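Researcher: Here's a chain I'd like modeled. Treat it as a single chain, no partners, no ligands.
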Amino acid sequence: MEQQQVESFVRDWPASSTAGKEGFIALWQQVQGLSDATLEFHARPGVSYSLRGICRDRASRPLFVMVDVIDDDPRWLSVCFYGEDVTDPEQRGDLVPGGLLGEDGLCFDIDEADPSVLDYVRRRIDEAYAAASIA
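Model: Modeled as a single isolated chain. Structure tokens:
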């Protein structure tokens, strides 16, 4: 069901937001490819669409990444992690106290097709997944 919802969401993506779409697809595919990870999709049309990477083995905090598509024109991405699960050596993220399901989060905004930003965020996903897998 989640897969069909995400596919429908991507298929109906407005043409004015192609950079965000490409980034979303790349991050979605990355999380899909992680063993023992599952995806949840939460749609709030007009506000955001949230793709959540879940590691069910981590009972206390199964979420390891949340990719939010902010429903503006053009759409942009906010990719958030628990602050203690990732590093930010280039200081590209924003600390959001209590901003990730009530806990401190570290969020990265992607609003253009910049491969270096996307690669940086993808490395944070790998970090967060590793932290979730050993917790």
